[in-house]
């Protein structure tokens, strides 16, 4: 039977037959429903833009996550495992993707969900945070929370009695993982950037170190950390290893470490102050603005 015969499948499929009309109407009405339930509804939480919340114990990570989730901080306890929380960008914060949209665009009023992954800060549990750096889908950035009230100025000398050494060591390890992620990439373009926000928390306290001084103190302490670890490896017999094999963070040579060096490996670092608690309430608008700029 040829395709142009009256009883052929193609002729009946394009002809004015009742069966053809019913099948066409059925497809027209069911296809949008199918797309809605099996594509839009099938999105899992892991498809959402994700931010890792990392930092030493007591820095205020969990309090920050609960504040972002509920709008108010609540009592917390020591985290022992990662916790993923879905939050929404505040209506007062504009996402970067909406920068050029009209104020009358109805999509601006739609909820912009994202995931915050709170990771433990205890020394024995930090492997959770380090593992998430390469295993988190749709990672948009890292929020490294630091207790600015526990870190002295770099001009005060030794940091053995403060949280500076602990904060710098953990931050060093995080940045080193991100650096190796770039240097070991097989693609010539390298992986996409992973911005880091150093959230200087508890700036409402009189003893808190301002964000610019916190930045300087962390850079100086990270320089000490990488030099100490390099000397340890040299003592262990790796004197012929190059800077990358030793796990040298930032530029090699005798230059001191600066956060700007991380931009060469697609890891821009920014230090921004704020506070989760305080007598006058939370001050986290700048942190929300940073998150919005990455969406």
Automatic annotation (TrEMBL):
GO terms for cellular component: endoplasmic reticulum membrane. It comes from the Eukaryota. It is a single-pass membrane protein. It is found in: Endoplasmic reticulum membrane. One of its GO terms (molecular function) is GTP binding. It holds the Pfam family SRPRB. Keywords: Endoplasmic reticulum, GTP-binding, Hydrolase, Membrane, Nucleotide-binding, Receptor, Transmembrane, Transmembrane helix. InterPro entries: P-loop_NTPase (IPR027417), SRP_receptor_beta_su (IPR019009). The keyword Endoplasmic reticulum applies. The chain crosses the membrane at residues 20-40. The keyword Membrane applies. Belongs to the SRP receptor beta subunit family. This is Signal recognition particle receptor subunit beta.
């Amino acid at each position: 039977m040829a395709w142009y015969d009256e009883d052929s499948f193609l002729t009946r499929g394009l002809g004015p037959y009742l069966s053809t009309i019913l099948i066409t109407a059925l497809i027209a009405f069911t296809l949008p429903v199918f797309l809605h339930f099996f594509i839009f509804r099938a999105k899992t939480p892991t498809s959402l833009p994700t931010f890792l919340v990392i930092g030493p114990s007591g820095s205020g990570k969990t309090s920050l996550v609960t504040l972002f989730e509920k709008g108010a901080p609540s009592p917390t306890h020591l985290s022992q495992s990662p916790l993923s929380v879905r939050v929404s960008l505040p209506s007062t914060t504009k996402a970067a993707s909406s920068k050029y949209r009209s104020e009358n665009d109805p999509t601006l009023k739609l909820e912009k969900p994202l995931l915050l992954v709170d990771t433990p800060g205890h020394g024995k549990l930090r492997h959770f945070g380090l593992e998430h750096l390469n295993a988190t889908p749709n990672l948009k950035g890292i929020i490294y929370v630091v207790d600015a009230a526990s870190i002295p100025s770099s001009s005060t000398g030794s940091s053995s009695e403060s949280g500076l050494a602990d904060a710098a060591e953990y931050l060093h390890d995080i940045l080193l993982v991100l650096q190796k992620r770039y240097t070991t990439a097989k693609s010539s373009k390298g992986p996409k950037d992973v911005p880091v926000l150093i959230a200087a928390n508890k700036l409402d306290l009189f003893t808190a170190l301002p964000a610019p001084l916190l930045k300087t103190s962390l850079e100086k302490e990270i320089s000490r950390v990488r030099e100490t670890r390099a000397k340890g490896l040299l003592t262990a017999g790796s004197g012929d290893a190059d800077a990358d094999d030793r796990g040298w963070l930032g530029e090699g040579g005798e230059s001191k470490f600066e956060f700007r060096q991380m931009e060469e490996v697609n890891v821009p670092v920014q230090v921004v102050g704020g506070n989760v608690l305080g007598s006058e309430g939370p001050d986290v608008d700048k942190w929300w603005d940073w998150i919005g700029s990455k969406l």
